[in-house]
Amino acid sequence: AAMKEGIVTEHTSFLSTGGIRINEWFFPDWRAGGHGITDVRKALAQSVNTYFYIIGGGYRDTTGLGVKRITDYARQFGFGEKTGIDLPGEADGFLPSKEWKEEVKGERWYVGDTYHLAIGQGDLLVTPLQLANATSVIANGGKRVTPYVIDSVDGQGGELTANQNINMDQIFDPYIINVIREGMRQTVTLGSGRRLSTLPIATAGKTGTAQTPGDRPTHAWYIGFGPYEEPNLAIVVLVEEGGEGSSVATPIARDIFEWWYLFGD
Hints:
This protein is an alpha+beta fold. Helices cover 34% and strands 16% of the residues.
Protein backbone atom coordinates (compact mmCIF):
# COMPACT_ATOMS: atom_id res chain seq x y z
CA ALA A 1 0.00 0.00 0.00
CA ALA A 2 2.79 2.41 0.88
CA MET A 3 4.58 1.71 -2.39
CA LYS A 4 1.38 2.09 -4.39
CA GLU A 5 0.61 5.42 -2.68
CA GLY A 6 4.13 6.74 -3.27
CA ILE A 7 5.06 6.92 0.41
CA VAL A 8 8.10 4.70 -0.23
CA THR A 9 9.86 2.97 -3.09
CA GLU A 10 11.53 -0.41 -2.90
CA HIS A 11 14.78 1.41 -2.04
CA THR A 12 13.47 3.77 0.68
CA SER A 13 15.14 3.06 4.03
CA PHE A 14 14.54 4.11 7.64
CA LEU A 15 16.79 3.74 10.65
CA SER A 16 15.60 1.28 13.27
CA THR A 17 17.16 2.07 16.65
CA GLY A 18 14.84 -0.03 18.80
CA GLY A 19 11.52 1.73 18.43
CA ILE A 20 9.73 5.07 18.17
CA ARG A 21 8.91 7.43 21.02
CA ILE A 22 5.89 9.73 20.81
CA ASN A 23 5.84 11.91 23.94
CA GLU A 24 5.61 9.50 26.87
CA TRP A 25 4.65 6.53 24.67
CA PHE A 26 7.20 4.09 23.27
CA PHE A 27 6.52 1.72 20.37
CA PRO A 28 9.25 -0.92 20.31
CA ASP A 29 11.02 -3.15 17.85
CA TRP A 30 11.38 -6.71 19.04
CA ARG A 31 15.18 -6.42 19.01
CA ALA A 32 16.73 -4.14 21.62
CA GLY A 33 18.82 -1.53 19.85
CA GLY A 34 16.92 -2.05 16.62
CA HIS A 35 17.84 -3.43 13.22
CA GLY A 36 19.77 -0.53 11.67
CA ILE A 37 19.08 0.78 8.18
CA THR A 38 15.96 -0.99 6.88
CA ASP A 39 14.19 -1.11 3.53
CA VAL A 40 10.99 -2.98 2.70
CA ARG A 41 12.66 -6.32 2.02
CA LYS A 42 14.62 -6.27 5.27
CA ALA A 43 11.52 -5.08 7.16
CA LEU A 44 9.66 -8.17 6.01
CA ALA A 45 12.57 -10.56 6.46
CA GLN A 46 13.40 -9.46 10.01
CA SER A 47 9.98 -8.19 11.18
CA VAL A 48 11.19 -4.64 11.77
CA ASN A 49 8.30 -2.89 13.51
CA THR A 50 9.77 0.61 13.10
CA TYR A 51 9.54 0.42 9.31
CA PHE A 52 5.83 -0.45 9.44
CA TYR A 53 5.12 2.14 12.15
CA ILE A 54 6.52 4.83 9.86
CA ILE A 55 4.79 3.82 6.64
CA GLY A 56 1.55 3.23 8.54
CA GLY A 57 1.29 6.16 10.92
CA GLY A 58 4.10 8.46 9.79
CA TYR A 59 7.04 9.90 11.71
CA ARG A 60 8.89 13.20 11.45
CA ASP A 61 9.10 14.10 7.74
CA THR A 62 7.27 10.99 6.52
CA THR A 63 3.50 11.04 6.19
CA GLY A 64 2.10 7.55 6.67
CA LEU A 65 -0.87 5.85 5.12
CA GLY A 66 -3.23 6.50 8.01
CA VAL A 67 -5.95 4.21 9.27
CA LYS A 68 -8.37 4.65 6.36
CA ARG A 69 -5.90 3.82 3.61
CA ILE A 70 -4.55 0.87 5.59
CA THR A 71 -8.01 -0.61 5.98
CA ASP A 72 -9.01 0.22 2.39
CA TYR A 73 -6.07 -1.80 1.11
CA ALA A 74 -6.68 -4.53 3.68
CA ARG A 75 -10.19 -4.96 2.27
CA GLN A 76 -8.73 -5.50 -1.18
CA PHE A 77 -6.82 -8.44 0.29
CA GLY A 78 -10.09 -9.79 1.74
CA PHE A 79 -9.75 -8.73 5.38
CA GLY A 80 -12.84 -7.53 7.24
CA GLU A 81 -15.21 -9.73 5.22
CA LYS A 82 -15.92 -13.39 4.58
CA THR A 83 -13.84 -15.06 1.89
CA GLY A 84 -16.89 -16.78 0.40
CA ILE A 85 -15.60 -20.30 0.97
CA ASP A 86 -18.27 -23.00 0.75
CA LEU A 87 -18.38 -23.67 4.50
CA PRO A 88 -20.99 -22.55 7.05
CA GLY A 89 -20.26 -20.21 9.94
CA GLU A 90 -17.29 -18.34 8.50
CA ALA A 91 -16.20 -15.32 10.57
CA ASP A 92 -15.56 -11.99 8.86
CA GLY A 93 -12.84 -10.57 11.12
CA PHE A 94 -12.74 -6.86 11.91
CA LEU A 95 -11.06 -3.73 10.59
CA PRO A 96 -11.18 -0.84 13.10
CA SER A 97 -11.80 2.80 12.19
CA LYS A 98 -11.64 6.21 13.85
CA GLU A 99 -15.43 6.43 13.84
CA TRP A 100 -15.83 2.99 15.40
CA LYS A 101 -13.42 3.77 18.23
CA GLU A 102 -15.10 7.08 19.02
CA GLU A 103 -18.57 5.55 18.98
CA VAL A 104 -17.88 2.24 20.75
CA LYS A 105 -15.01 3.14 23.10
CA GLY A 106 -15.70 6.83 23.51
CA GLU A 107 -12.06 7.60 22.72
CA ARG A 108 -10.33 9.45 19.91
CA TRP A 109 -8.01 7.67 17.52
CA TYR A 110 -4.31 8.24 18.27
CA VAL A 111 -1.26 7.76 16.08
CA GLY A 112 -0.35 4.88 18.38
CA ASP A 113 -3.52 3.12 17.25
CA THR A 114 -2.31 3.42 13.66
CA TYR A 115 1.12 2.09 14.65
CA HIS A 116 -0.52 -0.93 16.27
CA LEU A 117 -2.76 -1.48 13.24
CA ALA A 118 0.24 -1.26 10.90
CA ILE A 119 1.85 -4.31 12.56
CA GLY A 120 -1.38 -6.28 12.88
CA GLN A 121 -2.12 -5.43 16.52
CA GLY A 122 -4.74 -3.39 18.36
CA ASP A 123 -8.40 -4.05 17.53
CA LEU A 124 -7.70 -5.76 14.21
CA LEU A 125 -9.14 -9.26 13.91
CA VAL A 126 -8.26 -11.72 11.14
CA THR A 127 -8.99 -15.39 10.60
CA PRO A 128 -6.36 -17.91 9.51
CA LEU A 129 -8.36 -18.46 6.31
CA GLN A 130 -8.29 -14.74 5.49
CA LEU A 131 -4.55 -14.72 6.06
CA ALA A 132 -4.10 -17.80 3.86
CA ASN A 133 -6.10 -16.08 1.13
CA ALA A 134 -4.00 -12.92 1.44
CA THR A 135 -0.84 -15.03 1.29
CA SER A 136 -2.06 -16.58 -1.95
CA VAL A 137 -2.39 -13.07 -3.44
CA ILE A 138 1.32 -12.50 -2.82
CA ALA A 139 2.22 -15.99 -4.04
CA ASN A 140 0.35 -15.79 -7.34
CA GLY A 141 1.49 -12.32 -8.35
CA GLY A 142 -1.39 -10.15 -7.16
CA LYS A 143 -4.60 -12.04 -7.90
CA ARG A 144 -7.34 -12.47 -5.31
CA VAL A 145 -8.85 -15.94 -5.25
CA THR A 146 -12.16 -17.20 -3.94
CA PRO A 147 -11.30 -20.33 -1.92
CA TYR A 148 -13.32 -23.53 -2.07
CA VAL A 149 -13.22 -26.93 -0.40
CA ILE A 150 -11.83 -29.96 -2.25
CA ASP A 151 -14.27 -32.83 -1.82
CA SER A 152 -11.69 -35.57 -2.29
CA VAL A 153 -8.52 -36.60 -4.07
CA ASP A 154 -8.24 -39.96 -5.80
CA GLY A 155 -5.38 -41.62 -4.00
CA GLN A 156 -2.13 -40.31 -2.58
CA GLY A 157 -0.65 -37.77 -4.96
CA GLY A 158 -3.86 -37.64 -6.98
CA GLU A 159 -4.75 -34.71 -9.17
CA LEU A 160 -6.67 -31.78 -7.73
CA THR A 161 -9.53 -30.69 -9.96
CA ALA A 162 -9.66 -26.92 -10.50
CA ASN A 163 -12.94 -25.12 -9.98
CA GLN A 164 -13.65 -23.48 -13.32
CA ASN A 165 -15.92 -20.90 -11.67
CA ILE A 166 -13.22 -19.62 -9.34
CA ASN A 167 -12.84 -15.84 -9.10
CA MET A 168 -9.26 -14.73 -9.78
CA ASP A 169 -9.06 -10.96 -10.26
CA GLN A 170 -5.75 -9.12 -10.78
CA ILE A 171 -5.95 -6.49 -8.04
CA PHE A 172 -2.33 -5.53 -7.37
CA ASP A 173 0.62 -4.32 -9.41
CA PRO A 174 2.80 -7.40 -10.14
CA TYR A 175 5.96 -5.28 -9.80
CA ILE A 176 5.08 -4.27 -6.23
CA ILE A 177 3.96 -7.78 -5.39
CA ASN A 178 7.31 -9.10 -6.60
CA VAL A 179 9.17 -6.80 -4.19
CA ILE A 180 7.08 -8.23 -1.33
CA ARG A 181 7.77 -11.76 -2.57
CA GLU A 182 11.50 -11.03 -2.50
CA GLY A 183 11.24 -9.76 1.07
CA MET A 184 9.37 -12.90 2.08
CA ARG A 185 12.03 -15.02 0.40
CA GLN A 186 14.67 -13.21 2.46
CA THR A 187 12.69 -14.18 5.58
CA VAL A 188 13.79 -17.74 4.83
CA THR A 189 17.30 -17.07 3.56
CA LEU A 190 18.37 -14.28 5.93
CA GLY A 191 15.64 -13.49 8.44
CA SER A 192 13.31 -14.87 11.08
CA GLY A 193 12.27 -17.95 9.07
CA ARG A 194 15.71 -19.46 8.50
CA ARG A 195 14.55 -22.81 9.87
CA LEU A 196 12.98 -23.35 6.43
CA SER A 197 16.21 -22.66 4.54
CA THR A 198 17.24 -26.33 4.55
CA LEU A 199 14.10 -27.51 2.76
CA PRO A 200 14.62 -29.25 -0.60
CA ILE A 201 12.43 -26.57 -2.22
CA ALA A 202 12.72 -22.78 -2.07
CA THR A 203 9.92 -21.18 -0.06
CA ALA A 204 9.02 -17.70 1.17
CA GLY A 205 7.19 -16.53 4.26
CA LYS A 206 6.69 -14.21 7.19
CA THR A 207 6.80 -14.86 10.93
CA GLY A 208 4.38 -13.20 13.31
CA THR A 209 4.08 -12.85 17.08
CA ALA A 210 0.74 -11.38 18.16
CA GLN A 211 0.21 -9.99 21.63
CA THR A 212 -2.83 -11.12 23.61
CA PRO A 213 -4.77 -9.36 26.39
CA GLY A 214 -3.27 -9.33 29.84
CA ASP A 215 -0.25 -11.44 30.65
CA ARG A 216 -1.16 -14.40 28.48
CA PRO A 217 1.47 -15.80 26.07
CA THR A 218 1.60 -14.44 22.54
CA HIS A 219 0.08 -16.16 19.50
CA ALA A 220 2.69 -17.70 17.19
CA TRP A 221 2.10 -17.24 13.44
CA TYR A 222 3.79 -18.23 10.21
CA ILE A 223 2.56 -17.64 6.69
CA GLY A 224 4.34 -18.94 3.63
CA PHE A 225 4.19 -20.24 0.10
CA GLY A 226 6.19 -22.52 -2.15
CA PRO A 227 7.86 -23.46 -4.35
CA TYR A 228 9.05 -19.88 -4.63
CA GLU A 229 9.22 -19.60 -8.43
CA GLU A 230 6.02 -21.51 -9.25
CA PRO A 231 4.02 -21.79 -6.01
CA ASN A 232 1.22 -24.29 -5.61
CA LEU A 233 0.78 -24.11 -1.85
CA ALA A 234 0.07 -21.24 0.55
CA ILE A 235 -0.06 -22.03 4.26
CA VAL A 236 -0.85 -20.41 7.58
CA VAL A 237 0.29 -21.80 10.92
CA LEU A 238 -1.29 -20.41 14.11
CA VAL A 239 -0.39 -21.71 17.55
CA GLU A 240 -2.65 -19.86 19.97
CA GLU A 241 -0.70 -18.58 22.98
CA GLY A 242 2.23 -20.59 21.66
CA GLY A 243 4.94 -17.94 22.00
CA GLU A 244 7.26 -16.63 19.28
CA GLY A 245 6.30 -17.22 15.67
CA SER A 246 9.91 -17.77 14.61
CA SER A 247 10.55 -20.51 17.16
CA VAL A 248 7.11 -22.16 17.48
CA ALA A 249 5.14 -21.78 14.24
CA THR A 250 8.07 -21.89 11.80
CA PRO A 251 9.11 -25.52 12.54
CA ILE A 252 5.52 -26.64 11.92
CA ALA A 253 5.51 -24.80 8.61
CA ARG A 254 8.74 -26.56 7.70
CA ASP A 255 7.17 -29.97 8.36
CA ILE A 256 4.16 -29.07 6.18
CA PHE A 257 6.32 -27.96 3.26
CA GLU A 258 8.54 -31.02 3.59
CA TRP A 259 5.53 -33.33 3.52
CA TRP A 260 4.08 -31.46 0.53
CA TYR A 261 7.35 -31.76 -1.37
CA LEU A 262 7.66 -35.47 -0.67
CA PHE A 263 4.04 -36.62 -0.93
CA GLY A 264 1.64 -33.85 -1.89
CA ASP A 265 2.50 -32.94 -5.46
